[in-house]
Amino acid sequence: MVHQQRSQRRLSPYSDTEVTSEMSMVLAPRLAYFAGVARTEHVTRAAQEMNVPQSTLSRAMARLEQDLGVDLFARHGRTVSLTPAGRTFLGSVERALAEIQRAAEEVRADADAATGKVAFGFLHTMGAETVPGLLHAFRADHPRVRFSLVQNYGEAMLEGLRAGELDLCLTSPVPDAPDLVARRLDEQKLRLVVPADHRLAARRRIRLAEAAEETFVTLEPGYGLRRITDALCREAGFKPRVAFEGEEAETLRGLVAAGLGVALLPPPTVPRPGVVELTVTAPRAVREIGVAWLADRPDTPPVAAFKKFLLSRRGSLLP
Fold first, then answer.
1. How many CB atoms are closer than 10 A to CB 262?
2. Which residues are paired to 109 by β-bridges?
3. Where are the beta strands (DSSP E) in the chain?
4. d(C-alpha 212, C-alpha 236), whole Å
5. Could you give the CA distance from residue 154 to residue 124 in angstroms, rounded to a whole number?
6. Distance separating alpha carbons of residues 287 and 227, to the nearest angstrom
């Protein structure tokens, strides 16, 4: 059956994408009205159920048909019935409204103070011990708060904050950017890790300059620890000769144990055989750990609670 056309849509100077967006903004406020009238097949009864003036509802339906260029209802005095076009449109409208309702329920649930969700990012090196301990302590007072956990390197997590994919992240170095808020929480000593049979393995302490001729294994460019390594070596008066670049600190320890180089790394969760970890006396080899979030973004109650908890751990974040 050919749908009766009410009007010819005028040509638009905009692209197809712009026209679709424009049409969506026009139709969206009227979809619930349409579904109510379609369900009751009576404008007056639908207006009473939705608590809107009948004149408002009638005008909305007339404008909807005009914008679509199609008759959605056949009028029979005080009652209406759906045309074939109206029945086709109703199926899609009901699915759209159900999806909107589902999305609304989901965001309300995520913002619930007791059972809401926190999207939390952290460095790989903090995943084995630090973060599990933090979550265990936090959930003692907030047992039903849910977490979406993301392990990544610093720059990727900051992009996650900006994209709205993360609420908070633990990162290093502590970022300094106008669109972010960051607070220093703790610092972690870095050690020079050498193979167990290395010429320096009998030492307990070392000045980093003494490793100037060594081959280094490091994280890839863009990782915070790589920037810190490069800066410390530069302060010690040399540029490290890098043989291998990786994405995870424990992989680097494995490379060191295999005799492939030395590395500046934070302490391991458990001792790694095949390596010796030397205290660096100069320059001061530490990395600052901080929490960051996007400036001017309102916190949901669970995010606010976890942020307050993290800030309370200043100076005692690390095991």
1. 24
2. none
3. 73-76, 79-82, 117-122, 146-151, 168-171, 180-189, 191-195, 205-207, 215-219, 241-246, 263-265, 275-282, 286-294
4. 8
5. 10
6. 10
Q: What does the alpha-carbon distance between residue 226 and residue 228 come to, in Å, rounded to a whole number?
A: 5
Tens of pLDDT, residue by residue over 88-127, are: 999 999 999 889 889 888 888 888 989 999 999 999 999 9
CA distance 146 to 117: 5
Q: Go through the chain and tell me how many residues it has.
A: 319
The two tokens of residue 77 are 């005095």
Q: What type of residue sits at position 41?
A: E
Give the H or E element holding residue 21: helix 16-27
Q: Compute the distance between CA of residue 69 and CA of residue 75 in angstroms, rounded to an integer.
A: 17
Which amino acid does the sequence have at 194?
V
- Could you tell me if 62 and 96 are in contact, meaning their C-beta atoms sit under 8 angstroms apart? no
Q: Which residues of 99-108 are buried (b: 16+ CB within 10 A; e: fewer)?
A: eeeeeeeeee
d(CA 221, CA 219): 7
Q: What 3-state class would DSSP assign to 184? A: strand
Contact between 205 and 281 under an 8 Å Cβ cutoff? The reply is yes
**Alpha carbon of 220 to those of 81, 194, 226: distances in Å?**
66, 19, 7
Q: How far is CA 146 from CA 117, 224, 290, 302, in A?
A: 5, 28, 22, 9
Q: Are 291 and 310 in contact (CB under 8 A)?
A: yes
Contact present, 282 and 237 (Cβ < 8 Å): no
Q: What are 136-173's pLDDT values in tens digits?
A: 999 999 999 999 999 999 999 999 999 999 999 999 99
Token pair, residue 55, equals 């004149």
Which of 128, 106, 110, 147 lies closest to 310, judged by CA? 147
- In the numeric block, the tokens 């097949």 are attached to 41
